[in-house]
Amino acid sequence: YIVKDGISALQYAASIVNRIIKNQYIKILVVDDSKTFLKQAEDFINRYKLIPLLSTNGEDALKTLKENKDIKIVLTDYLMPKMDGIELTKRIRSNYSKDELSIIVTSNASDSRIPSKFLKLGANDFLYKGFSKEEFFVRINSNLEIIELFEDMKNKVNKDYMTGLYNRRYFFEFGKKIYEDNKKANKSLALSIIDIDNFKNINDSYGHDVGDEAIKEVAKILNKNIISNSLIARLGGEEFCILFYNRTKDEIEKLLEVIRRNFENNFIEINELKINYTVSIGCSFEYGKNIDDMLQLADKGLYDAKKNGRNQVRY
Ligand code: GH3
Ligand code: MG
Ligand code: MG
Ligand code: MG
Q1: Taken in order 12, 18, 22, 24, is the CA torsion positive or negative?
Q2: For 76, phi and psi rounded to 5 degrees?
């Protein structure tokens, strides 16, 4: 690559490295009944440091899609025995929207109505077979960029800017689904609220910026200790919420105690200050009528914890 000066050369190199690092997790599914085409596509995809997955028919492709979460692009042929590209596109679009998965159709069909037919059914792009390596890369890249833009936008809408945790809106939207699925299957659910004790004092004594850092620290500790089967969110201010699903009561009780103790025993360094603060936690294992109900039950526990001297977990 020819770049004018040192700094832009470095920036350019960094952007390529970034793309390569990102690509290592991006899967592209290629569906074609021609083994020769699959081999060629596999080779192109490997060169671009993406992960190729190959299917020789539609049924198998749908199965592969179900089993692999991080497929971002499906590259499908038009004419295939049993299920053609049209049917496959329809089936994919009934489950995956354009903001999570891109469909690129590849064909040498001479009928000029075919590309528009595919695009109307929800395909994103159409590539005539015999494409060059460069055209292939450019199309893949522009489709990935669109998906990344969507992901970026979704992150901005669903996450709390300060902590990177999910926000209140997302918590109730996605939490409702988790709640309903787990209640229906009679699987365990627990909801806990974590609230910093006497947080006003931190703000009043050290300023709002230090208060913000204390809030970020909670997010860090929650992320560090709670890894699976949970939805963690910042509900607002210095209040956090965790929905645990399919985990035992015992496990959750231990986990909440670890979190509580983490604050009790640690001095947190913020702007050369060493401050110590505690948290109170309320938790409910009852389903209640709905997720709001569950939150109220957990809030009762929190109220008890505050009333009884703070720095404790109440159920
Ligand atoms: P308690 O132990 O009963 O929970 O008392 P507390 O002082 O922690 O709780 P209270 O609800 O009285 O005060 C919460 C304060 O949090 C009030 C508000 O100004 C502050 N706050 C809310 N959001 C933010 C924020 O994003 N950053 C900072 N620094 N402060 C915030
Ligand atoms: Mg074919
Ligand atoms: Mg508080
Ligand atoms: Mg509060």
Answers
A1: positive
A2: -120, 145
pLDDT digits (tens, 9 = 90+) for 239-274: 999 999 999 999 999 999 999 999 999 898 888 899
Q: Tokens at residue 249, please?
A: 């009561």
Q: Which of 87, 238, 257, 272 is catalytic?
A: 238
Residue 78 and residue 116 in contact, taking contact as beta carbons nearer than 8 Å: no
pTM: 0.78
ipTM of the complex: 0.96
CA distance 310 to 287: 25
- How far is 214 from 199, CA to CA, in rounded Å? 9
Q: Please report where in the chains the tokens 């009762």 appear, as a residue.
A: 300
DSSP-based three-state secondary structure for 68: coil
* Amino acid identity for residue 65 in this structure: L
* Helix 168-184 and helix 291-307, axial crossing angle in degrees, nearest 10: 110
Which residue carries 């075919």 as its tokens? Answer: 114
- Amino acid identity for residue 200 in this structure: K
Our answer on whether the CB atom of 237 is closer than 6 Å to any ligand 1 atom is yes
Rounded Cα gap, residues 22 and 283, in angstroms:
38
Contact 45, 24 (CB under 8 A): no
77: Cβ below 6 Å to ligand 1? no
